[in-house]
């Protein structure tokens, strides 16, 4: 659904936040990016769904706590009705219920409002490319939650053995994801480019049938890599 403009794939983005003081400046700042078109600004989930229906839309930057229809339910409906639209959560809340609820509903990324403009635009681009981005605080919460839960039942996905055809580098990348490192952090740790990290992650996810980064964290812990 992206269109080409001056050689760039331009992402059509909706900014959803019930506070105009947050929504409007954020939409204005994102609109300065060469590859992002903010096509709508929404104050609640019903406005998001209406804007997506009018389309086309690539990514929704979604607040969680909104009136009428909240961000988690809106994400769930988008996942069911418009699976081609990626959701990146941008919220003040980083509690387990919010994180797991949003990721379980289908969000592809999760950032807190401490994220800077570059972090937000990077997450939007990653989501538009089918990748997942979780900020460090969220990854740490997922790690803490996974480690304190009771051991999964036999056959649980988190305990399924990793495929034999994973390369040593792919296992290394999975371990670093499990430790909470971002793609940039993994690249710096392994002295490789972020593009190479993305290639390893794509191969790893395909081979191990990993859905997203949260699932990767669970699998890394289950395999004893993190």
TrEMBL record:
Residues 12-128 form the Response regulatory domain. Residues 159-224 form the HTH luxR-type domain. InterPro entries: CheY-like_superfamily, NreC/VraR/RcsB-like_REC, Sig_transdc_resp-reg_receiver, Tscrpt_reg_LuxR_C, WalR-like. GO terms for biological process: phosphorelay signal transduction system; regulation of DNA-templated transcription. SUPFAM superfamilies: CheY-like. GO terms for molecular function: DNA-binding transcription factor activity; transcription cis-regulatory region binding. Keywords: DNA-binding, Phosphoprotein, Transcription, Transcription regulation. Signal peptide: none annotated. Pfam families: GerE, Response_reg. It comes from the Bacteria. This is Two component system response regulator.
């Amino acid at each position: 659904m992206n269109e080409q403009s001056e050689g760039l794939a331009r992402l059509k983005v909706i900014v959803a936040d019930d506070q105009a003081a947050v929504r409007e400046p954020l939409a204005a700042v994102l609109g300065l990016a060469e590859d992002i078109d903010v096509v709508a600004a929404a104050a609640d989930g019903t406005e998001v769904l209406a804007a997506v229906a009018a389309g086309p839309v690539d990514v929704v930057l979604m607040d969680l706590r909104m009136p009428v229809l909240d961000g988690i339910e809106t994400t769930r409906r988008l996942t069911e009705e418009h699976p081609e639209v990626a959701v990146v959560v941008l919220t003040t809340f980083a509690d387990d219920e919010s994180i797991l609820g949003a990721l379980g509903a289908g969000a592809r990324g999760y950032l807190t409002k401490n994220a800077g403009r570059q972090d937000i635009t990077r997450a939007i681009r990653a989501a538009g490319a089918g990748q997942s981005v979780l900020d460090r605080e969220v990854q740490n919460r997922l790690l803490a939650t996974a480690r304190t839960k009771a051991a999964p039942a036999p056959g649980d996905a988190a305990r399924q053995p990793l495929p034999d055809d994973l390369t040593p580098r792919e296992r290394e990348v999975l371990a670093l994801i499990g430790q909470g490192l971002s793609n940039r952090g993994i690249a710096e740790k392994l002295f490789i480019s972020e593009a190479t990290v993305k290639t390893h992650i794509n191969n790893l996810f395909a081979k191990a049938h990993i859905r997203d980064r949260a699932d990767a964290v669970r699998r890394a812990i289950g395999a004893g890599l993190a």
